[in-house]
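User: I'm preparing a small set of examples for a lab meeting where we compare how different chains pack in three dimensions. I only have the primary sequence for this one, and I'd like the structure in token form so I can line it up with the others. Please keep the answer compact; I'll paste it straight into my notes.
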Amino acid sequence: MPVIACPDCSREVSTIASSCPHCGRPSPAGTTPIVDTGPPTQQEETLWKGTPAWSLLAGKILAIILTMIVIPVLAHFAAKSAPDLDASAKLISAGWWLTAALVLIQLALFGLALARLLSTLYTITNQRVMIETGLLTKALSEIDLRYIDDSQFEQGVIHRMLGVGNVTLVSSDKTTPVYVLRGIRDPRGVRELIRSHAYKVSQRQIFTRAT
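Assistant: Understood. Below is the structure token output for the 211-residue chain.
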């Protein structure tokens, strides 16, 4: 049993005693109420932050390059079998016009994909997963780690070659029951990071729950 020295008589007094049994002085240790502050709160820390990988745009860039090469070559090949020079020139001109039109369409699609990539930010902390989207206007949604029921990662053949993949989160959150972190690097590692910390949060919640 812990004891303290009485300030008046300097004799030992139990910390649970309301007063000194020797001189009668009220004991500060006995009169100070014990305050239950509850379990310590854990400060939120960022564990991982990232965006969809730039390598996802490689396919669109390759498609633009192939369009600029293949269609003019085919047009020149067809022009060789034209009956006269005028028809040959028209075929070559049509090939260039078709190339220009397809390249413009692909550039527009590339711009949309780039804007979507730049406007998406994923953040994982030891408490939640946050998804921020938008360039001019911002939208933020989040999933509490306590509500994540399952997590999966997916990699196709092309994604494996590029070193990227998707991580799917299934939760009991009503606003965002399912969300996919698309095209991120090391999807297996990110999935394991989320899974391990979601387990830690759930265990901490069990042991600190009031009874």
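A couple of notes for your slides: The chain has a mean pLDDT of 84. Strands lie at 3-5, 12-14, 46-50, 120-125, 128-133, 139-144, 148-154, 164-171, 178-185.

User: Perfect, thanks.
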